[in-house]
Amino acid sequence: MPSRPSSPAPGDHLDAPFLDAPFLDAPMGLALLDADARYVRVNRALAEIDGTPVADHPGRRPWDLVEDLDQALRPACERALAGEDPGTDLDIRIGTGPVSRRWRCRVRAVRDGGALVGLTLAVDDVTNAIRSREALEEAADAARETSQALAALVDASPIPIIAYDLDGRVTQWSAAAERTFGWTADEVLGAPPPTVLEGRRDEYMAQLRATAQGHGLRRYETERCTRDGRVLDTLISTAPLRDASGAVRGTLALVEDDTSRRRAERRSQHLRALAAALAATLEPEEVAQTVLRLGLPALDASRGIVASLEGESLRVLASVAAGDEGLRAGSVLSLDAGRPLAWVARNARPIMGDEEALRREYPDLLRDLAFDFGALAVLPLSADDRLVGVIGIAFAGPRAFAPGDRQYLDTVAGTCAQALDRARLYASERDAHASAERESLIATALARAAAALSAAARPSDVVRAIHEHVLPAAGALFATLRVLDESGTVLVALTDPEFSDPDQLASYPLDSDAPIAEAVRSGTPVLLRNPAERDARFPEHGRRLAQRGAGALAAVPLTVGDRRIGGLALAFEQSRPFDGIELQSIQVLADTCAQALDRARLYEAARTAERTLAEVVRQMPIGVILAEAPSGRIVFGNAEAQRIWPVLPTTALDETASWSVFHLDGRRYTPDEWPMARALLHGETVVDEELEIRRPDGSRAIISLNAGPVRDEMGGIRAGVATFTDVGERKRAEAIRDAFNGVIGHELRTPVTSIYGGAQLLLRPERRLDAATRNAVLEDIAVEAERLNRLVENTLVLARAERGTVVGGREPLLLQHLLARIVASERAARPDVRMELAVAPRLPAVVGDEGYVEQIVRNLLSNAAKYGPSDGVVTVTAEQSGDEVLVRVLDQGPGIGDEDVEALFALFYRSPRTVGVASGAGIGLFVVRHLAQAMGGRTWASQRPEGGAEFGFALRVVEEDEAPADPARAPSAPPGLRPPRRRR
Asked: Could you tell me the pLDDT band of residue 974, with boundaries at 50, 70 and 90?
């Protein structure tokens, strides 16, 4: 267990780093003092209040910096340090005369585990608030003296003045309030103010409660709504209204419309953020995206588009929520088009206004707009009196476009134009530099590509060189290399395992309409410079190229002398001019590829026969080894030989006695008996000699081996060759088949004989059986039929297991329902056996196959009933354990030994403890294990401490993403044959 962190020393928390941000940026003065009343830490607000830099405070007392604090603050600090109550907030006057200040201070002790470690000091300069409150209270006093004077003052004020009673109802509504908000005094007097937004009501009531408690002048920023639905940013000052006795009877509020100032402030912040973001952009598209990303939210706009002037057209750089499908990023708009963007670019004048006015003034321009808008602003982007583009902004609702709005939009447009012009200049310089650098790189790349192609020894090496050197040299996206077949009529793709692409493997007849076929037919390059040219000439292949991201293609013939041997196609992502140095480079690469390919094909042909022979031997399905003469050292072994015999002998003949090679009767082979030795030394041919090899991992194999000598032209033995196959599986299968036939023949004979005999007895007309005898015969037939049915079901599973085809359904099952049905069926079939079922509540669904589960449980119940005592109990339990549900079948039979735990699940195995108790074929538990494994489950067997045996299986719980909505309705594999029910 990790150790607990040690407790901090007293005062350590005064320097906690996580307090820095909220402490330093707090709007009121805050300080931490140590136990000697000396500053430990102060924030910026306190430094501004007392006029001393933050760094000069630590180690000094407050009254050391401000002398007027000595008389009022010092005693409070001493009381707090002495453990006494320092009292309420201190109202301290700093200085004298008209420049004096009023501070409100609060001192509190800081304790750590009961120990006093320091003080907190909060200071607020309330000078302005007190002066405002005093002024407001003086005005209120004057107003109380004469209500007529107050009413005249309220109505004459240019700032809305509103009075509320203690319940928040309007008692005074000035003319300025009526002009600002739109409601008349008759509409609002005596009712809650309609100007308060729904989300601001709690704030409004809190301010009223504070005023009702007698707090002085309070100022806060908030929002208020007008009658026509506009939301105004407001600055509200409130003060209590008192009666002649001084009791608070309401609230007086002065409401200043702060919308213009706040909007100007936000716009200024936005312009600074926009300018900073644009300063970091280098691409025209980046500029456009940045302007729309930052500008649209600041303008409350719904759509936007920025286009760059390029010759006689506009290219869209970025768009947001474009309703016109033709004006997406990358699309081009002619300056002659009847669209607002084109009109503004032609005339270098803005279009700005609400929808109704614009549709009257520009009906033709707005007729085809594919989106709705309330207002629209389209402005030219000019830099140094040069038009560089156009910006369009659409608003969902109406817009007045006051002079301030127009000036702001002009500023945004100007900032965008300057950034766009700078980005275009950068892009032009970058492209020029890249072009010069590319010419130099092309020459170097051509030399490397030529060297790589010259070194290619095989056609696949040519393909590799094209991908590794030709593609970078040409700046291509991908390449296709095809050669003419022997008939000279079909272009066949050449591939390399590392670079082969399924899309490039198609072969084309020479007379097809593929670009590469046309290039080979005509002997001249086929150049498709852009998508339009590509799609017009080769529409079908154009679609395939577009799907792979290619915009341009150059297909050139590969020629050696007067022979055309194939073609090379290079695909490019962007449009290409294919002129000058680029076309020359492609032709040089094609000529070099042709020469390298011709050399490689000649070399490949020379090695084909050798490779074919070696490959045949290497891939033969029998083991082949070759030994040199006369030593007998193994010099070659194919893949099958290595698989059968992982460590082939490589020693001389006289050391073969150490090899793990044995006769089938267990005798080790001697050196002169080894078949290869007999072939090398005596020229003997050995046919189908069976022997046993023992591998280093302990496994064994029986092989059938053939050996013979390899002679030279003079008849001398040059080498020995041996072939062998692993016949162990075949022999084991034969043994299992023989055992299977014997067991099944015996097991089937018993129930068939019983059923046949009972049926014959019942069918004899000359013998009339009494009811008891007849029922006993019928019961024997039912029992033997059940045994026969179970044997058939198990035999079917056994047959599938031998072929490795036991595959179960993997569907959700509810075992509690399935087990109840199976146990009930078995109880009815075996009334002489007591069966109990104990299922844990709320079992989850498991993954399995209903038919397999039923066969498993019936096999286990049959075993338990067969080997248990006549008065015994068979119990079936089911419970969840982790991510599995465990099902156990518990009996009171003879039990099992430790040595039998795993052997019990082997085919045909029967424990010595149970052989004499009941007959059986040794198949049932083998079937149980294979069916459980087919469902992804497991099985086990164990001795019960109280006697008897436990056999069980576990299935995986269904995970959430596997479970159907109703697991009880989940489909399952159809059940197998059901055993007949036995009746009494």
From this structure: very low
- Per DSSP, the chain holds a count of helices (H) and strands (E) of 28, 35
Amino acid at 933: Q
Q: What is the pLDDT of residue 884?
A: 94
The H or E element spanning position 856 is helix 850-867
Report d(CA 398, CA 375) in Å as an integer: 5
pLDDT for position 983 = 35
Q: Which residues touch 180 (CB under 8 Å, ≥6 apart)?
A: 160, 226, 232, 255, 257
- The encoded tokens of residue 150 equal 């107050």
Closest by CA to 648, choosing from 665, 660, 630, is 660
pTM recorded for the entire structure: 0.34
Tokens 């321009």 found at: 365
Report pLDDT digits (tens) over 224-259: 899 888 888 888 888 888 877 788 888 888 888 777
Q: What is the enclosing helix (H) or strand (E) of 956?
A: strand 949-956
Residue 729 pLDDT > 80: no
CA distances from 688 to 93, 536, 645, 858 (A): 119, 69, 17, 48
Handedness of CA 907, 911, 915, 920 (dihedral sign): negative
Please provide the DSSP assignment of 414-466 as one string. Answer: HHHHHHHHHHHHHHHHHHHHHHHHHHHHHHHHHHHHHHHHHT--SHHHHHHHI
First to last CA, the chain: 66
Burial code of 457-478, b = ≥16 C-beta within 10 A, e = fewer? ebbbbbbbbbbebbbebbbbbb
Asked if 350 contacts 401 with a C-beta cutoff of 8 angstroms, the reply is no
Query: Beta partners for 380?
Result: 390
Position 888 pLDDT exceeds 90: yes
Q: Is 879 exposed, middle or buried (0-12, 13-18, 19+ CB in 10 A)?
A: middle
- With helix as H, strand as E and coil as C, how does 535-600 read? HHHCHHHHHHHHHCCCCEEEEEEEEECCEEEEEEEEEECCCCCCCCHHHHHHHHHHHHHHHHHHHH
Distance (Å) of CA 752 to CA 593, 748, 787, 789, 855: 79, 6, 10, 11, 21
- Those residues with Cβ within 8 angstroms of residue 582's Cβ, 6 or more apart along the chain or in another chain: 576
CA distance linking residue 325 with residue 780, whole number of Å: 83
pLDDT tens-digit series, residues 805-819 = 555 667 899 999 999
In whole angstroms, give the CA distance from residue 237 to residue 253.
Answer: 6
Q: Are 7 and 115 in contact (CB under 8 A)?
A: no
From the list 298, 233, 238, 237, the residue with the least C-alpha distance to 261 is: 233
Query: Which tokens belong to 113?
Result: 């585990």
> How confident is the model over 403-457, as pLDDT tens digits?
777 888 888 888 888 888 888 887 777 766 666 665 565 666 667 777 777 777 6
Distance (Å, whole) CA 863 – CA 928: 11
Residue 566: name the closest of 503, 512, 500, 493 by CA: 493
Per-residue pLDDT at 905: 76
- CA-to-CA dists, residue 691 to 555, 613, 647, 664, angstroms: 63, 29, 16, 6
Considering 187-201, 318-332, 458-472, 587-601, the range whose residues carry the highest mean pLDDT is 187-201
Distance from C-alpha of 679 to C-alpha of 658, rounded to nearest angstrom = 19
| pLDDT one-digit tens code per residue, 532-590 | 888 888 888 888 888 888 888 888 898 888 888 888 888 888 888 887 777 877 888 78
Closest Cα partner for 962 from 885, 852, 848, 819?
A: 848
- Whether a cis peptide bond, with omega within 30° of 0, leads into 5 is no
Q: Which has the closest alpha carbon to 866: 815, 790, 771, 754? A: 790
β-pair partners for 490: 509
Q: Distances from the Cα of 979 to the Cαs of 783, 814, 918, 982, in angstroms?
A: 9, 22, 20, 9
